[in-house]
Amino acid sequence: MEQSIKKINRPPYGILAVLMIGAFITFLNNTLLNIALPSIMVDLDVEASTVQWLTTGFMLINGIMIPTTAFLIQKYSVRRLFLTAMGLFAAGTIIAGIAHSFPVLLIARMVQASGSAIMMPLLMNVMLVSFPVEKRGAAMGVFGLVLMGAPAIGPTLSGWIVEHYDWRMLFHFVTPIAIAVLLIGFFLLKDKKEKVDIRLDLFSLLLSSVGFGGLLYGFSSAGSKGWDSPQVYGTIIIGIISLVSFILRQIKQERPMLNFGIYKYPMFALSSVISMVITMAMFSGMLLLPIYVQTIRGISPLDAGLMMLPGAVLMALMSPITGKIFDKYGGRILAIVGLVITTVTTYYFSKLTLDTSYTHLVILNTVRMFGMSMVMMPVSTNGLNQLPARYYPHGTAMNNTTQQVSGAIGTAFLVTIMSNRTESYASEFAATAMKNAVGQPTAEMQQQIAMRAMLEGINDAFLVATLFALIALILAFFIKRAKQAEDIIEVKRPEKEKATKLIVDN
Fold it and tell me: 15: which residues sit within 8 A by CB, 6+ positions away?
């Protein structure tokens, strides 16, 4: 792919525009369904533990597909990959819109996910090979606008549609846009790919799928099934064994499916760790805040979505600005300032009460998202900047995979802390109430105890998320402005031996 892009004297803005529109639609779809889950439960008569598979299944397919994108990007043209990705996404969206049973809807979501998983690494790779290092921050900032803008409007748009129409309208709304983008790509994308002699190692694909899939499934299920469930710890153990086997196999191969050698570049390795830790911290706001406002405060789904909107919009708008600052000053100062803001605001979220005002929540969340906007894209871009060009597909695939896994781990960990601490506080408050009151606590008193216990459980989970943010802040002090490493092509063993023999003979 690099060859096809580099032939163009200036960045291929037409290709980038088409890719960004396609990426926007797929990213939007990721957050559209969350608020509609209760309506789907009622309409299709399924339990909460079943309906969450619409989210978990989507994440699983992403976790399985994304590691293969490094191979796909090297093997096929932008045009072919884009049309395949958008074709799968559009097909899944159409099927979901007419689904009248849960299994059909779940299959449709997984088809959507298989297309969506290709879009982000594809777009990021085109961005990296299209812009020089000194202009890459601004370019990735525009990419961040797309990446964060779609999830920003997702919950609010979803809340409005679900309140006024059937949940299937979420898919009917996206279908014509997806088809239009597919047709635009068909007529506008013309890039060719020179034939590349590279084959997919099927055993590596199997190990990768079982490894990443097992970890994602295990950690995603821990919140509902508990850590002592064989289904949880069994799949995590299988996932770890498969993942270790996958990594060892990749290290030994001359042309690995996913090259773990990129971790020898210190700035990439550091950026990868920071991104994973901050992703775990970020999920605290996305997960715990909606539970607090809807379950404890009784705020409607639409108002809950509106509460998150200013922060998400500010995060999206800040992305191009932080991109330009990154080009001028580097990622270290941005990451430190952003993580200080993120750490402080996450700590204040651990001080929620039963009557914290709606305005206070909006302001605190907006400031927190402002801090986050200075971290994710600059840190990730700084790490990718150190890689030689031929490693870009592996770097983008690795970043997206580790963020999926860390997101699942962070979600499971925080849900477990919230649940365990809620049970502990409920027992403590009930014992105190029994001691102070005459007779058994009334139903109203039991409900009050349950609410207070959940509130304290959420606060404790936010406190742990604060520690995650603090760890990321400490790591940010070690960031240095990355310079691209020399792109030295490794010589295969037979060629090395031949060259050595020539030197000896002479």
Answer: 5, 78, 126, 188, 189, 191
- CB burial of residue 494 (10 Å; 0-12, 13-18, 19+): exposed
- The distance in angstroms from the start CA to the end CA of the chain is 40
> Domain for residue 388, yes or no?
yes
Whichever domain contains 395, its CATH number is: 1.20.1250.20
Give residue-wise pLDDT tens across range 345-399.
999 999 988 888 889 999 998 999 899 888 888 888 888 888 888 888 888 888 8
Distance (Å, whole) CA 141 – CA 357? 33
The answer to whether residues 144 and 282 belong to one domain is: no
Q: Which residue do the tokens 């499934």 mark?
A: 217
Q: Is the same domain home to 215 and 305? A: no
Domain of residue 278 covers 274-486
Q: Are residues 118 and 240 in the same domain?
A: no
Q: Sign of the C-alpha dihedral, residues 490, 491, 494, 499? A: negative
| Structural domain count, the chain | 3
Query: Is 495 inside any structural domain?
Result: no
Same-domain pairing of 141 and 186: yes
Q: How far apart are CA 502 and CA 345, in angstroms?
A: 65
Comparing CA positions, the residue from 462, 191, 471, 492 lying closest to residue 351 is 462
**Do residues 230 and 321 both lie within one domain?**
no
Specify the DSSP element, H or E, that contains 237: helix 230-252
Pick left, alpha or beta for residue 426 (phi over 0 → left; psi -120 to 50 → alpha; otherwise beta).
alpha
Q: What is the pLDDT of residue 502?
A: 37
Residues 364 and 244 in one domain: no
Decide if 226 contacts 37 (C-beta within 8 A): no
- Whether residues 119 and 172 share a domain: the answer is yes
Which sign, positive or negative, has the C-alpha torsion 31, 276, 21, 185?
negative
Q: What is the pLDDT of residues 248-294, one digit of tens each?
A: 998 888 888 888 888 999 999 999 999 888 888 876 677 778 778 87
175, 323: one domain? no
Using a 10 angstrom Cβ sphere, with 0-12 exposed, 13-18 middle and 19 or more buried, the burial of residue 224 is middle
C-alpha 37/C-alpha 59 separation (Å) is: 16
* Segment 408-437, tens digit of pLDDT: 778 778 877 888 888 888 888 877 777 776
497 occurs within a structural domain = no
Question: Two tokens at 314?
Answer: 């500010």
Which among 195, 210, 234 is the end of a domain?
A: 195
Q: What is the pLDDT of residue 490?
A: 47
For residue 95 the two structure tokens come to 């099927």
Which pLDDT score is estimated for 88? 93
